[in-house]
UniProtKB/TrEMBL annotation:
InterPro entries, per database record: Znf_C2H2_sf, Znf_C2H2_type
Gene3D superfamilies per record: Classic Zinc Finger (3.30.160.60)
Gene Ontology molecular function terms on file: zinc ion binding
Chain residue ranges for the region called Disordered: 32-62
UniProt domain C2H2-type: residue ranges: 11-38
UniProt KW keywords: Metal-binding, Zinc, Zinc-finger
Protein's name according to its UniProt entry: C2H2-type domain-containing protein
Organism annotation: Achlya hypogyna (Oomycete)
Length: 62
């Protein structure tokens, strides 16, 4: 999403609303958001798998 301000094109992040004058900087920034999203999805999958496995394990008493 490019915005115009004082004859400059600004690229605004749709995730955090940060603005960048250079498209390359904006693309690099958006890549960081994508990496964060992938890490979050992996963490959620891992947590779900841990819950599933712990539910299948027999409970022990001390």
């Amino acid at each position: 999403m490019a915005l115009r301000n004082q004859d400059k094109a600004w690229h605004r992040c749709l995730v955090c609303a940060k603005a960048f004058e250079r498209e390359a900087s904006w693309l690099q920034h958006m890549e960081r958001h994508e990496n964060q999203r992938q890490q979050r999805r992996k963490r959620l999958r891992d947590e779900a798998l841990d819950r599933e496995l712990s539910a299948k394990l027999p409970r022990t008493t001390n």
